[in-house]
């Protein structure tokens, strides 16, 4: 996701594909099954198919120590990342106002409401006023909190959904991202109506409804985020056990890569919220008291749920297994629909192995903290196709507004998995097939059309490879 452009673009009308399509090169075209997604039969929809094609799929690409070095490098070099411990204990007005203005400086574009009507100027003025930029003090103590439930991050302090086109209600232009339970934040400012906080999280700075944040001391917040032992959510999503005794943590959604502390010293036979814990992990979750302050509570996470005692090893097999756990999940711009978009998808997969990434597509594709191959006007079509054919499993391929993860090749044809609204390709007769997907999907790369003239590979901006040798020049080709 990369505001202000609609990412994972190519929202297309569903069309029945007929014939055999052309590709970005001169090789034999891929077949088109009845469902219309070029080159994809049932066998290609499982991670096992792609793992079986690899030599040594369980070899560790980067160990934990190397990942820690890369994460520190990313935090140091990428301005979209925020080291909360490094932020000043007292926040200057210029710093806070800069964060807010960078995100929501104005509403220049024409926007439409759910009913398709253009948003009135008076409504736009209300959103701007609710930021209360004039009320930011010259200097104020930084405040700290933990997110208590999955919550949206918004461009403006409002839940109103707005869109670029009448009737196009999937991409809410004010939806920026989402934060998961247990995420630490710095609380930088409050909206005029008091319902919102502007927070800085490790990956993003935006507006969040204050009801989703419990305020505590810096020591409490950071101690929770670093507490051991812990469980890492390795499923697409899991939920805590239902508990009427503590509704705030009942059936709480925990998304892939979420880290939750385990109460290892909890007595084996002592009930948790009215239930015996022997078949579950006893975890600790943040809780928001009625006055907004931070508390902690035990909760149960069933042992059958897809979690792990640590981050998964970074292997090509694990990248495939993790990515395919999202296959078919509804596309959610800015993590809407309790799901995720293209950049959120690849980020959550890599974070389940401990690898941090910037939130947005553009930041990922350009980050000085990641090793990437950049493409420009000097790179012709043949050079781009050659780079696509040299992709390795886990490589991230960027075009304007979209990212795809390489999963392997079939007879030299590179395939990707990506969270996308749809895809387009040319049939054998030259006509364009457009397939609505709106989901995490598998497809070959080379036949995909960016528009009527260009293939995806012709608009490729960079390839990011998470790999060893952090000292290697970031501009070197993989």
From TrEMBL:
| Leader peptide range in chain numbering | 1-24
Boundaries of each NlpC/P60 domain copy?
313-467
Keyword set for this entry?
Hydrolase, Protease, Signal, Thiol protease
Biological process (GO) annotations? proteolysis
Q: What is this protein called?
A: NlpC/P60 family protein
Q: Name one GO molecular function term.
A: cysteine-type peptidase activity
Task: Provide the species name.
Answer: Dokdonella fugitiva
Q: Which family does it belong to?
A: Belongs to the peptidase C40 family.
Source domain of life is: Bacteria
């Amino acid at each position: 996701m990369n505001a202000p452009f609609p990412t994972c673009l190519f929202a297309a009308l569903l069309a029945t594909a007929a014939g055999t399509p052309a590709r970005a090169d001169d090789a034999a075209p891929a077949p088109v099954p009845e469902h219309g997604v070029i080159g994809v039969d049932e066998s290609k929809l499982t991670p096992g198919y792609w793992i079986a094609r690899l030599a040594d799929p369980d070899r560790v690409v980067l160990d934990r120590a190397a990942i820690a070095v890369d994460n520190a490098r990313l935090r140091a070099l990428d301005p979209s990342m925020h080291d909360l411990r490094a932020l000043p204990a007292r926040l200057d007005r210029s710093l806070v106002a800069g964060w807010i203005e960078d995100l929501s400086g104005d509403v220049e574009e024409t926007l439409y409401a759910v009913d398709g009507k253009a948003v009135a100027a008076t409504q736009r003025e209300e959103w701007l006023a609710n930021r209360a930029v004039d009320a930011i003090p010259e200097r104020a103590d930084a405040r700290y909190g933990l997110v208590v439930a999955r919550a949206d991050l918004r461009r403006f302090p409002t839940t109103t959904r707005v869109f670029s086109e009448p009737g196009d209600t999937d991409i809410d232009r004010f939806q920026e991202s989402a934060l998961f339970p247990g995420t630490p934040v710095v609380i930088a400012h409050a909206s005029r109506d008091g319902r919102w906080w502007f927070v800085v999280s490790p990956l993003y700075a935006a507006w969040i409804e204050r009801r989703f944040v419990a305020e505590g001391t810096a020591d409490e917040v950071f101690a929770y985020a670093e507490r051991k032992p812990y469980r890492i959510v390795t499923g697409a999503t899991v939920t805590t056990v239902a508990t009427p005794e503590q509704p705030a943590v009942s059936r709480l959604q925990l998304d892939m890569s979420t880290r939750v502390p385990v109460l290892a010293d909890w007595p084996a036979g002592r009930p948790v919220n009215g239930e015996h814990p022997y078949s579950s992990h006893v975890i600790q979750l943040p809780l928001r008291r009625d006055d907004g302050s931070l508390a902690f509570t035990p909760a149960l996470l069933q042992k059958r749920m897809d979690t792990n005692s640590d981050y998964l090893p970074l292997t090509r097999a694990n990248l495939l297994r993790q990515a395919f756990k999202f296959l078919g999940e509804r596309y959610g711009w800015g993590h809407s629909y309790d799901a995720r978009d293209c950049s959120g998808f690849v980020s959550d997969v890599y974070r389940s192995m401990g690898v941090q990434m910037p939130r947005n597509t553009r930041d990922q594709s350009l980050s000085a903290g990641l090793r990437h191959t950049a493409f420009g006007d000097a790179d012709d079509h043949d050079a781009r196709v050659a780079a696509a054919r040299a992709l390795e499993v886990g490589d991230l391929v960027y075009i304007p507004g979209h990212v795809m993860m390489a999963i392997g090749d079939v007879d030299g044809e590179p395939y990707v998995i990506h969270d996308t609204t749809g895809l387009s390709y040319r049939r054998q007769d030259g006509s364009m097939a457009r397939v609505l997907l709106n989901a995490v999907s598998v497809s070959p790369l080379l036949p995909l059309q960016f528009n009527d003239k260009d293939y995806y590979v012709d608009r490729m901006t960079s390839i990011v490879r998470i790999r060893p040798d952090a000292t290697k020049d970031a501009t070197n080709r993989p």
